[in-house]
Amino acid sequence: MYFLLRRRQTCAKATLYAGALAILALILVSPAKAQTGAIFTSLPDGTEVNFNIYASKLDVYLEGGPGPGAPQGAAGLPDGVYVFMVTEPAGKNLLSTDIAACRRFTVSGGISSALVTTNPACPVPHLTGLSVDHGALTIQLMPYLDTTNNGGEYKAWATPVDKYLCPLTVVSCNSSRFGFQDDFTKTDNFKVKVSAIREIDTRFHDTNNKGALIDGLGITWHDTLGNSNNKWSYFNLSLDVNHEAHVEAPENGTHQIVISNQAGCTVDEVYLNGQLLGTGPQTVFVKVLSSYKNITLVIDVNCN
Description:
Blueprint: H1 2-29, E1 40-42, E2 53-54, E3 61-63, E4 80-87, E5 104-108, E6 111-116, E7 128-130, E8 137-140, E9 153-160, E10 186-192, E11 198-206, E12 212-213, E13 218-222, E14 228-232, E15 234-236, E16 241-248, E17 253-259, E18 267-272, E19 275-279, E20 282-288, E21 295-303
């Protein structure tokens, strides 16, 4: 009996010890926090071309957030140095043609503020502009190759330099997605020289004011590659932006739109293309099929 008792005590101690080691291991290997903030493509003066049908690849500039419609104080990218690239929307082909060192920019105070062209040296810096919205630096994405996508669609990416896996002295390497890691990357899609509209728009309705549309409310968009970006609802008649948070040129596959409670909106009912999905905060799964050539997929959120 004494032997059995001692054995059980020993086993119990061993179980507790193993459990403690497992918890410690989880703490030690727990993943780093995902990248916060947002990027968006724009014209040189920072006026976003929602339904981003740019006349030329030369017209497309990058800004390090926060995007149009973001409320005062909304977070852009955390301060630091970033690398950007351009791919086709599925992320399989790198289209940027200059070395990574020439695709670096600094974020300060939550907005893009400067190009980085030294250490290592960049022989041909990108052109820049100045945003009329947040006073941020805008950075021309050229040079990049034409997309292989038949709809004229592209994807812009940005990631912190210290999370970039390739040498800055080369255009690319075979590490991850051309050196970009999903957890530390923000993306935004855009179109060049096409007339068809392909988009996901989210509208917020004030149920206490006859369903009036609300500006300045946000969503988080997760694309099919595991990357994310933040969008806000706003109104700009000249850009045909009608009180909506807009995702442009979504690639084929299932996209996720995260709807959360926030200041100005306690989420009630959520609809996708007029069909009730449920109530309360939720993630809306939006399927984009290859047959979709000219379509707007609409998410409506009723706010209390």
